[in-house]
Design brief:
Elements: E1 6-14, E2 17-26, H1 39-49, H2 54-68, H3 78-100, H4 107-116, H5 121-144, H6 158-166, H7 181-201, E3 207-212, E4 215-221, E5 226-234, E6 237-244, H8 246-250, H9 255-261, H10 269-283, E7 289-295
Parallel strand pairs: 1-7
Antiparallel strand pairs: 1-2, 3-4, 4-5, 5-6
Helix pairs in contact: 1-2, 3-4, 3-5, 3-7, 3-10, 5-7, 7-10, 9-10
Length: about 300
């Protein structure tokens, strides 16, 4: 298994549609390594164990542990966090979405932006948005042939999750799912514009925490959705720790994919596979995945 885990997705193809969609998400128990550790050790270790979106992982860990100890979270590196969102979002929009829609990827433009981001990231991003991104986005949306409104960007709300972490609710709040594949793509484009302008304006990055008295829960925005870190601390040591990424919410069952593909026609098995790939991309897992489509 990959260190981040593995996602297997299965479906049956019959009568021109996909049916019986099933997901199997497996995660290694990485957060167990934090049990028994001092909070400062966990904060230093988290970005190395969770290297994808490491800035957001660090910010959420630090905030959760701070409020658990009745402290105030330290200021975060807003520019680094916005840049991280831009990187992950541009990767998808310039490389993966075009490939999923049968369009040429903008590899050279993405590589050039990655080189320039170490200098004037805000300026490099604006130039990319005004040029390559705008053209490619129009082509991708035309390929989807849908005018659905953009999916709303999720907002950190740790207070709403606190009852679950206290044991007062059986499960954490369910995430809002995009209404369609096109809505998910439009949402990512809107998110890209928001992050680019926020970086240019020097806006604070959305990180929030709730709790106290040895219990803390913090959330950070990421390119894929809201990241959650939840912790219990006693006598200066971590006694319980959970990390819930957007992928854990979107793929905890098949509801998200099934909703995106309900009623979607595919004339051939290959066309059905392309639709399934697009639906998976719309929910954007942060780990490797495999697809299996069987003729029913």
């Amino acid at each position: 298994m990959n260190p981040a885990g593995q996602l297997d997705i299965r479906a049956a193809y019959r009568d021109g549609q996909l049916h019986e969609i099933a997901v199997d998400l497996r995660r290694p128990p990485v957060s167990r390594l934090f049990v028994g550790q001092a909070p400062e050790v966990v904060v230093k270790t988290v970005p190395y164990l969770y290297s994808l979106c490491s800035e957001a992982q660090r910010a959420a860990a630090q905030a959760a542990l701070a409020v658990a100890g009745d402290g105030v979270p330290r200021p975060v590196n807003d520019a680094a966090l916005w840049t991280e969102v831009l990187h992950e979002t541009l990767w998808r929009l310039l490389l993966d979405w075009p490939a999923a829609l049968g369009l040429p990827a903008a590899r050279a433009e993405f590589a050039a932006w990655r080189a320039e981001r170490q200098g004037d990231c805000a300026g490099a991003t604006r130039r990319l948005l005004d040029g390559c991104v705008g053209r490619l986005a129009a082509d991708c949306l035309a390929a989807l042939d849908a005018a659905d409104a953009a999916a709303a960007a999720p907002i950190p709300d740790p207070a709403a999750w606190l009852p679950w972490w206290r044991g007062e609710a059986a499960a954490p709040p369910a995430p809002a799912m995009p209404g369609s594949i096109a809505a998910a793509l439009r949402g990512r484009l809107a998110q890209l514009e928001t992050a680019a302008q926020a970086l240019a304006d020097g806006r604070p990055f959305p990180v929030a925490a709730a709790g106290g008295g040895g219990l803390g829960l913090a959330q950070s925005a990421t390119a894929r959705g809201v990241l959650t870190h939840a912790v219990r601390v006693a006598d200066g040591r971590v006694t319980d720790y959970r990390v819930l990424a957007p992928t854990d919410a979107f793929f905890r069952d098949a509801a998200g994919l099934s909703g995106l593909l309900a009623g979607v026609a595919a004339a051939t098995r290959d066309a059905a596979r392309r639709r399934l790939e697009q639906a998976v991309l719309a929910l954007d897992p942060c780990l490797p995945y495999q697809l299996e489509i069987n003729d029913a």
